[in-house]
Design brief:
Number of domains of chain B: 2
Largest interface: A-B, 22 and 20 residues
Radius of gyration of chain A: 26 Å
Number of strands of chain B: 5
Distance between the termini of chain B: 37 Å
Distance between the termini of chain A: 79 Å
Strand content of chain A: under 5%
Order of helices and strands of chain A: HHHHHHHHHHHHHHHHHHHHH
Order of helices and strands of chain B: HHEEEHEE
Shape of chain A: elongated
Number of domains of chain A: 4
Strand order of the largest sheet of chain B: 3-2-4
Structural class of chain A: mainly alpha
Oligomer: heterodimer
Radius of gyration of chain B: 16 Å
Chain lengths: 425, 123
């Protein structure tokens, strides 16, 4: 009977710990990084704390504030380990753990005091800003954020980004080295820096999202995990920092995500917006996205992400391409080009121009764009050109444009779409 | 007359040295500095962390642009240096962004490395 009881407790402790690891593991980790000032040490401390809890909680019972208990225990374990290393090889420990030693010494005085309110969300925010520090290469920022903030394994990140595990591991090591040796502080940005630092974090989130969203190759399961992580990060950031563009980016990702089931055919080829079966669009995501766009555009200042989300929201509300408020979309495009001038955005705008003013007007704009060197190398510019040429009945030129577009892309799915258009001419 | 003596080498070559050879070179550098200071010929000097730890900063149109990695613009030439004493990279970036030529060229920020008799950081 006693044995049975123990087994139930055993099970309860295991379940409780699994739930804490899932829901609060990354927060506990972030706090340990702040307390210990070192990624590796914090990671070991995190694992130590959970394994101590597994045995300890069975006899002592589950503490009233389990997460705080885990933080205290993790920290004690880490300090203990540093002391042992210190005794074994005084000089090595001192040199290898110089910065850590400093933290530990200042912490010594606080050793007896209990860990109170250390699990503040600020620690996770500190971690996000540290991983997305502009002094770290953007690719490394992405890898570090997914590893340290989201808790994905190096293998998962490597497979999502179609790189080898060793390349990804190296990237993460490089990032941690830079943080340690350049002394990037584990700290929230100052008020003056906040906007530009948030922008850097948003770039990382958007990169993660697009990597998962535009996946045409690779393991689609791990890659769609990226869109989930990007949305999770944006929600977390939104709950901690007041910035309109965070809301805008979250809305943009939700609205793009709402079309997930409609945007590819059985072969995995992309179906363009105008041809999608809109009954497959996820209405719950659309409603949330629209509400976020409304709240963001009600603010006096918004930018790149909010405006793109606003365009997506107009599409989301239309029953089909013909019943879309193209005038409103054109107005948003003008604003977008003002905020972020780019020939690719101008190209996207020509599609709205064609719908609102007719293909002739759009043709003129594309021809102007094709004067630019970058656009002369961009297959979608020729594909769009071909589309408008077809609509005005200039099929021979449309064919030439599509054939030229084919020479500009090496991606098999893109080539398949172009070939299908050629066949349909 | 005051001069600056700038030290250049190929990091890849130096990484091939054994820890022992590397420490020996660092000891030589410590001795060199000591003897120059004794003769009042040296005002100061620092070894630097490798370029992988560098951060490059520019100020354009009033905006601070930060990139990971060393200064790599071959069209620009070294024009001066500041030895900063600040608490972390954020403060270093903040201070360096006030250096006037940051508006025209680039400022490379690199942490210094303390020379030690043994176990010098080596990679």
């Amino acid at each position: 009977m006693n044995k049975d009881n123990t087994r139930v407790t055993n099970e309860a402790v295991k379940n409780k710990l699994a739930a804490i690891y899932r829901d609060e593991g990354r927060r506990i980790y972030a706090t340990l990084i702040r307390l210990l000032g070192d990624f590796e040490l914090a990671e070991e401390a995190l694992h130590d704390a959970f394994s101590v809890a597994l045995t300890n909680w069975q006899s002592e019972g589950i503490p009233s504030k389990p997460a705080n208990w885990l933080v205290s225990t993790g920290r004690f374990k880490a300090i203990d380990q540093l002391r042992r290393q210190h005794r074994h090889n005084e000089i090595v420990a001192q040199l290898a753990n110089d910065s850590v030693e400093e933290t530990v010494i200042t912490d010594e005085s606080a050793l007896s005091t209990t860990v109170k309110d250390q699990l503040i969300n600020d620690d996770q925010l500190r971690l996000i800003f540290t991983c997305c520090h502009p002094a770290i290469d953007i690719k490394v920022q992405v890898a570090l954020t997914l590893r340290e903030v989201c808790g994905l394994t190096t293998e998962e990140i490597a497979s999502a980004f179609l790189t080898s595990v060793s390349t990804m591991a190296q990237r993460i090591v490089r990032g941690k080295q830079k943080i340690r040796d350049a002394n990037i502080p584990f700290q929230l940005p100052s008020k003056e820096e906040l906007e530009s630092r948030v922008e850097a974090v948003l770039s990382v989130i958007y990169l993660v999202y697009n990597e998962g969203y535009s996946a045409s190759v690779g393991d689609s399961v791990t890659r769609s995990e990226l869109t989930v992580e990007a949305i999770r990060l944006a929600r977390l950031l939104q709950s901690l920092v007041a910035d309109t563009e965070i809301t805008g980016l979250l809305a943009l990702m939700l609205l793009n995500g709402s079309r997930h089931n409609a945007r590819t055919n059985k072969d995995g080829d992309i179906i363009i917006l105008a041809e999608q079966d809109r009954s497959l669009w996820d209405q719950a995501l659309i409603q949330e996205g629209i509400a976020l766009v409304q709240s963001a555009t009600a603010k006096s200042e918004y930018g790149f992400y909010t405006i793109q989300a606003a365009i997506a929201a107009v599409h989301a509300q239309a029953s089909d391409a013909n019943n879309t408020d193209w005038e409103q979309i054109l107005a948003w495009y003008s604003l977008l080009l003002h905020v972020a001038p780019s020939p690719v955005i101008e190209l996207n705008r020509t599609v709205a121009v064609a719908m609102h003013h007719g293909p002739e007007a759009a043709l003129v704009l594309v021809e102007q764009l094709l004067q630019q060197k970058v656009m002369q190398k961009y297959h979608l510019c020729y594909a769009t050109y071909a589309e408008f040429l077809t609509r005005v009945g200039r099929k021979k030129e449309a064919r030439a444009a599509l054939e030229h577009a084919l020479t500009l892309t090496k991606q098999i799915p893109e080539q398949r779409i172009l070939k299908r258009k050629l066949a349909a001419l | 007359m005051k001069y600056v003596a700038l030290v250049y080498y190929d990091e890849a070559t130096m990484q091939k040295l054994s820890q022992q050879q590397w420490d020996a070179l660092n000891q030589e550098c410590i001795a060199c500095g000591d003897s120059l200071r004794e003769r009042n010929s040296m005002l100061g000097g620092q070894a630097l962390q490798p370029t992988t730890i560098a951060t490059t900063l520019r100020v354009r149109s009033g905006q601070v642009e930060i990139t990971d990695g060393p200064f790599a613009e071959t069209k620009e030439q070294l024009a001066g240096f500041y030895l900063l004493d600040v608490k972390d990279l954020n403060e270093a970036i903040h201070v360096a962004s006030k250096i006037p030529p940051a508006r025209y060229g680039s400022i490379e920020i690199r942490p210094v490395r303390e020379l030690q008799t043994t176990d010098n950081q080596h990679r």
